[in-house]
Write a structure and sequence with these properties.
Helix content is 40%, strand content 19%. The chain is of the alpha/beta class. The protein has 16 helices and 17 strands. The chain has two domains: 206 residues, Glycogen Phosphorylase B (Rossmann fold, 3-Layer(aba) Sandwich), CATH 3.40.50; 175 residues, Glycogen Phosphorylase B (Rossmann fold). Strand 1, helix 1 and strand 2 form a beta-alpha-beta unit.
Length: 408
């Protein structure tokens, strides 16, 4: 089976989408499934990977974050699809990439299974965040009828729609009438594990605030983008500055200045920046007393699952993909975008028995979290059972169009 992922949000310096697609390439190689990725980039070039490839198509950068590009011309993508002749073509954004795949025509297109894997919720990520101080989220959803109609029309051109969280599947069903296949994403439960808890690391982190080991340490992980709502989270934590509560936040992004100002205003928040060492990240998570998150727009909620896999309880907004990892036994929820409500949720969790919360969270990692292998096995099985193989086998690698530079 040959899967081609038209991945609008894949970038060399990208975040979660890059991590996910790289894992898909690796798992495909292990299981004999070829995976090709078509992504927009600053230039035309091909990167060969074990068992697959990443083909960059020259496209304009997104002004607010130049790490990412957006498909513009359909012709180069269509040419590649015609040449690759995939058994499955997957669009992983609802924007230009999905439009190109939906409108791809010809013999190879009719033989391929078209799947729309929903990676983004622009209404929740942007419109609801920008208007949260004066409009209710339901009002914004209703005013965004034009987007839901577009999404419904686009989805009708695909053979299947895939979501990574139960919450997001319910959301697109409610707003656009779209049925979907739920394939939860997986977490490396060997990497993120309660045994990584390090009392000395925890002591050092608290000491940076001048706090004793009896204090409570919260952790947050995510990009510095507006939809992550870090200023709201920091305001909530800052209200507890006199109660021996501190927070460390891991991540960076184009909203760095705003996030840094919010952290400084809180007084009990420290920013660690990007932590590329995954082992170090796992140790930090396991050594915290709870994870707190702010985004209502997570379509996967993978960060909350990583926290749960590390054996720590969760403080989460009551909307978004992170809620798939939530349960009253190990988490507290709050109204999205409401700092006072988040402060109350922190209070509620910290007033509970910490040992019992950890026991509950550690138990949940077994029953509530899939591994990456389980995710890809289920996804590839879904595609294999629905795909109609093309008559002409896919070439070992895509023909490289004239003028395209192959990466070393």
């Amino acid at each position: 089976m040959h899967i081609v992922d038209v991945a609008e949000f894949y970038a060399p310096l990208g975040g979660g989408v890059k991590t996910y697609i790289d894992a898909k390439l690796a798992f495909g190689h292990q299981t004999g499934v070829k995976v090709s990725v078509i992504a927009p980039g600053p230039e035309d070039r091909v990167e060969q990977r074990d068992g697959g490839q990443v083909i960059y198509v020259k496209a304009p950068a997104i002004p607010v974050d130049t790490r990412y590009h957006v498909f513009w011309k359909a012709a180069p993508v269509v040419q590649l699809l015609d040449e690759l002749k995939p058994d499955v073509v997957e669009a992983s954004s609802p924007f230009r990439g999905a439009w190109i795949v939906a409108n791809w025509q010809g013999r190879a297109a009719h033989m391929a299974h078209k799947a729309l894997f929903m990676h983004a919720d622009p209404v929740a990520a942007h419109l609801q965040v920008w208007t949260q101080d004066f409009l209710h989220a339901d009002t914004v959803d209703k005013a965004s009828f034009w987007y839901w109609r577009y999404l419904a029309r686009t989805a009708q051109r695909f053979d299947s729609v895939v979501v990574g969280s139960r919450w997001f599947g319910q959301r697109i069903q409610k707003q656009a009438g779209i049925g979907s296949e739920l394939v939860p994403l997986g977490v490396d439960k060997t990497l993120f594990h309660p045994c990584k808890r390090d009392s000395e690391l925890r002591r050092q982190l608290l000491a940076e605030f001048g706090l004793p080991q009896s204090a409570r340490l919260l952790v947050g992980v995510g990009r510095h983008h507006h939809e992550k709502q870090w200023p709201v989270v920091f305001e909530a934590v800052g209200a507890l500055q006199d109660e021996n509560v501190a927070m460390i936040q891991i991540g960076n992004g184009f909203a760095n200045e705003r996030v840094h100002k919010a952290a400084a205003a809180a007084g009990n928040v420290k920013l660690l920046g990007h932590v590329g060492d995954r082992e170090k990240l796992a140790r930090i998570l396991a050594s915290a007393d709870a994870m707190i998150h702010g985004s209502r727009a997570e379509t996967f909620g993978l960060v909350a699952s990583e926290g749960l896999a590390a054996g720590i309880p969760l403080i989460l907004p009551a909307e978004g993909g992170c809620t798939d990892a939530a349960d009253p036994a190990w988490s507290e929820l709050y109204e999205p975008g409401n700092a006072a409500a988040a402060t109350d949720a922190i209070h509620r969790l910290l007033n509970r028995n910490p040992d019992q919360l950890r026991v509950n969270a550690i138990g949940a990692r077994r029953s509530h979290i899939s591994t990456p292998a389980q995710h890809f096995e289920r996804l590839f099985s879904l595609y294999r059972n629905n795909a109609t193989p093309v008559l002409t086998p896919a070439p070992a690698t895509a023909p490289i169009p004239a003028g395209v530079r192959q990466a070393a």
